[in-house]
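Repro:
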Amino acid sequence: MNRAVIISRLLWIFPAVTIVLSMLFYSQSEHFRDWPFFVSESDRSGPASLIFTAGFMLSGVSLSLASWMMWADKETITQYSVENISRISGIVSGICLCGLALFDMYEFTLIHVIFASTLFCVGCVWMFTTHKATNDKDVKVTSQRLLFIWLGGIGWLLMTVSMIAATLYSPQWLETPLDLSHVQSYVAVAAIGEYLWAIAIIGSLKSYEEIFHSTL
């Protein structure tokens, strides 16, 4: 297995392992609050926080670089082409992942929320534009990518509507120190949306493994 294959595979393995391990360690820690919870709640302290920070920093840098390299050899890309939108949205998504890793939701609540909100929205743009730009002829792969796009969109909608409702109900949840306990009923719905979105973006990344491999 050559280096390009390993790197292209790690693009989806990094975030998948980061999410699972950080949530697992957090759920067993003394800081655990309630199920379901946001992935970012894992960034509290101890092994969960270390895994979250390192994992998403690596994921963010990798995604930004891969998004650039994916279309580096395309000479016909214009400013408003779908390929360029795919590239920009991928780079922005990677930057947002790094932002989530650097600014935890407990000490930098508003900054973290801005990065997260941008990631969820722009990530959906990346899934859609990359699907349109690659124009894969494989019916099975195309169907999978469309499913992930719908899944990501539904997840984003659940998160957005739920947390807007939470903000209208109790704007104080955005204040530091963070306490989500009094808006847990809203968080429960938003967290499920976040899980759906995470599955969608990781599934999408995995579906482009061969394309990433050929461009790295």
